[in-house]
Amino acid sequence: MCAEYSDIPKVLHIIMEKPDFNHLYSIAENQAGYFSSPQAEQAGYSYERLSDLTARGQFKRIQRGVYRLPHFPNTRFEDLHIASLRTGPDSVVSHQSALAVYELSDILPAEIHIIIPRTGSRRRNGIRLHTHRLRADEITYREGLRITTVERTIADVIAGGISFQHARQAVQEALRRGLTTKSKLLAQAGWRKGRAAKMISQILEDQTP
After folding, report:
1. Are residues 57 and 129 in the same domain?
2. pLDDT for the residue 206
3. Residue 93 lies in a domain
4. Mean pLDDT calculated for residue range 10-15
5. What is the pLDDT of residues 101-130, one digit of tens each?
6. In what order do the strands lie in the sheet with 92-93?
7. Chain CA centroid to CA 13, Å
8. Bridge partners (DSSP) listed for residue 130
9. What is the pTM assigned to this prediction?
10. Domain of 158, in residue numbers
11. Beta strand 127-130 pairing with 112-115
């Protein structure tokens, strides 16, 4: 094979690896401006180019493997964005961490709670990983985070041992702000067993019509 044709694969590889900022922006835009190094690689950014652009101020390095587009403001949930990106694209913010995002409790979680697929890694410093099953309708987006729905969040924290007082506070506040409905909470209770189902039903029965 002559040199002219033998270089074609190399040329095609370079073309395919050309950085696509629009692609990267579309990823980061849905994540409050944050993105991971694997996501940057998907958009054609090599490690060397990513490092170079970060040094030149076009990207902001937040932690190892986590970046933010500079024109997106810093968020109060940056720790959750970092944890979510570091635990993979299928991770979902959950339990007390999700409760904090919805502002349904004054409890400050000691760890970040994330639900991951059963095949995911279970060792992350400062992150409490759960492998509970999630239906598609139990996942939503808030503050650029992939997060459990309000009713799923409430059921999870009740099952995890939250007090009746805090559970009632969360339910009442969620209903008052229109974040969920009694029918959605009752449906969640119907899918659950044990403490979560019993407590959700009891709290809703105590609500005035």
Report:
1. no
2. 82
3. yes
4. 42
5. 999 988 878 899 999 987 656 667 789 999
6. 127-130, 112-115, 92-93, 145-148, 139-142
7. 33
8. 115
9. 0.84
10. 78-206
11. parallel
